[in-house]
Amino acid sequence: MPESAGLLDATELPRLFDALRERGYTVVGPTVRDGAIMLAELGSAAELPYGWGVVTGAGRYRLHRRSDTAAFANSAGPQSIKDILHPPRARLWSADRTADGVTTTGPDRPPRYAVIGARPCDLAAMAVLDRVLSAGAYPEPIYTARRDGVFVVAVDCTEPAATCFCTSMGGGPAATGGFDLAMTELADADGHRFVVRAGSPAGAEVLSALCVRAAGPRAESEARAAVAAAADAITRSMPDESLPDLLTGARESPHWADVADRCLTCGNCTMVCPTCFCTTTEDVADLTGEHAERWRRWDSCFDLDFSYVHGGSVRRSGESRYRQWMSHKLGNWQAQFGSSGCVGCGRCIAWCPAGIDITEEAAALSAWRRSERAQPCPP
Amino acid sequence: MTTPTLAVWKFASCDGCQLSLLDCEDELLEVAGRLRIARFLEATRQVLPGPYDVSLVEGSITTPDDAERIRKIREMSGTLVTIGACATAGGIQALRNHADVTEFASMIYPRPDYLSTLATSTPIAAHVDVDYELHGCPVDRRQLLEVIGALLAGRKPNIPAHSVCFECKQRHNVCVVVAHGTPCLGPVTRAGCGALCPAVGRGCYGCFGPAETPNTAAEAALLIGAGMSADDVHRAYRTFNSAAWEEAGS
Ligand code: SF4
Ligand code: SF4
Ligand code: SF4
Ligand code: SF4
């Protein structure tokens, strides 16, 4: 798809919303709620987080007012595109008893979502989820149906958070694919506007319904500079070595016990991670026994029941559960799905109530391994 | 098939958990249609004789009489389900376990010698076998209906033992710890309430008792980091489920 850069004035965003709705999409995007930027169905572009910025750290997230009106000059909140495409709870089927047996229906047909403001790490996560949930002989029906119908309006990151490290996971603050439209936001003396490009025929068709001017070399170079500055502003990183080898080699490290002292096994990291896909199912029935439903909900390897087999749970200690999460994300995911399970979004760092930082834990494991290798003889 | 019978029992408690059953307004008629309510004094004076298929037991054991009565109830009951913090963990009255109950009694009652009370308040499971436990102060009505529905259908009830945070994130609450700096016991507390308090911007205060493997020491350090005093942290762990938190190492 050729990318022809256009310029969209911020005052044109309501038209974008209308155009998406006219095409049958339910518009979802970021909005401020309860002190965070959350995803919600948006009634209008006015609900976008205009003028809000975010400061994050390990176990910390705070909104602040910006001096400009930028709507996307902030980093991702606790939710990601996973929340839309692979929702926390979904009904797989429902069954009713009838005179001659049982009838079943489901899963429900999802609305077609247009996701406004998807981040490059969301796009990377979506590509990961595509491989996990949609590729192969048995595509997962709920994700696949939502994914097939989705329209993605990506936004390049111009203000990454202190917790971001996408650049060290093969990504970066620029959207490079997997979108229908992508925009770079500019809010300066020349006004509040977006340099916009289409990534699909559907995107180009929506653009044709909007008032788009030619961006011109100046706006284009400003947009490029803003994204390049964002890449430079990212300071966190993963150790520069093969992470699968690191995780395999650090299996017996005493460092896991150190993490386990701090880890609450609360599961927040897996819930906010845009690629963690694990689920469990629950059957519910009404009291009459005439109507039953099977629901699927997110599960997590931090749950004791997650590793339950006959006789008990396999991963009982906090150590073994943290090790599972990190080894799967950074290590065995490669062999299983052909990529890393981590896109470097930093959500697990910011939204861990204990402030446990996956990059710091990886660095500590790496240091331990180097010190082990340096020992001439076993102690 | 005969209609299964349900009995509701009360020990040392505030009646709030039984009230959760009455509070199932929309479903109560359905419950009454599928189960014969054989004994439920909060709802009706009529008492049908046992044995009972399902017994819901509220309250903790605080007197020698209680200790005797719960044995008889166990013998009369097919499935015994304890409901609430008192029945599952001794309740707020278990604070006596670390104090002198005779001293408390002398402060309250003009003639404490009329009382016959035990030195401790203990959960039902410390006295008899319990089939299912529903935690919370009070219990969650959805969980109560889930257990009743599951027993009627002959399936295992969904009563997760993981942290409140699971429900909190799945409900799309904003974490009050991370975004507001508000202390919250959710990471070490058993799910079941649907993350009610964080949904209204408050920290969880642990009324469902400890989750399956709570790291109470790490949580205490975080609470102190969020500005609570060591005394306040101790009190947070010593409210409705003090004995259970104590067992969990807090
Ligand atoms: S592991 Fe953490 S940083 Fe990596 S994708 Fe998941 S939430 Fe983001
Ligand atoms: S890290 Fe845990 S929750 Fe996430 S995908 Fe792997 S096993 Fe599932
Ligand atoms: S690493 Fe943090 S978010 Fe994840 S389970 Fe441990 S304490 Fe919870
Ligand atoms: S608000 Fe409390 S219960 Fe909710 S995720 Fe944060 S720590 Fe967990």
Overall pLDDT confidence of chain B:
93
The domain count of chain B comes to 2
> Between the first and last Cα atoms of chain B, what is the distance in angstroms?
48 Å
Helix percent of chain A reads 25-40%
**Which assembly state applies to the chains in this document?**
heterodimer
Protein name (chain A): 4Fe-4S ferredoxin
Domain 4Fe-4S ferredoxin-type (chain A): 252-283, 333-361
InterPro entries (chain A): 4Fe4S_Fe-S-bd (IPR017896), 4Fe4S_Fe_S_CS (IPR017900), Helical_ferredxn (IPR009051)
Pfam family, one (chain A): Fer4_22
Report on this model:
The complex is a heterodimer of chains A (379) and B (250). With 379 residues, chain A is α+β, with helices and mostly antiparallel strands. Chain A has 2 domains: 6-96 and 106-233, no CATH class; 243-374, no CATH class. Chain A has helices spanning 13-22, 82-85, 120-134, 141-149, 201-208, 216-233, 243-249, 255-262, 268-272, 318-337, 347-350, 358-374, and strands at 6-9, 25-33, 36-41, 52-57, 60-65, 89-98, 101-105, 112-118, 151-155, 181-188, 191-198, 213-214, 279-285, 291-298, 308-309, 312-313. An 8-stranded mixed sheet of chain A has the order 3-2-8-9-10-11-1-12, sandwiched between helices. Chain A is globular and about 65 Å long. Chain B folds into 2 domains: 5-153, NADH:ubiquinone oxidoreductase-like, 20kDa subunit (Rossmann fold, 3-Layer(aba) Sandwich), CATH 3.40.50.700; 164-247, no CATH class. Helices cover 38% and strands 11% of the residues of chain B. Chain B is built from 12 helices and 5 strands. In chain B, helix 3 links the parallel strand 3 (52-58) and strand 4 (77-83). The interface between A and B is large, with 48 and 44 residues. Bound molecules: iron/sulfur cluster (SF4) (4 copies). One iron/sulfur cluster (SF4) binds at residues 272-275, 329, 342-348, 358 of chain A. Chain A: Keywords: Iron, Iron-sulfur, Metal-binding. Chain A: It holds the Pfam family Fer4_22. Chain A: This is 4Fe-4S ferredoxin. Chain A: InterPro entries: 4Fe4S_Fe-S-bd (IPR017896), 4Fe4S_Fe_S_CS (IPR017900), Helical_ferredxn (IPR009051).
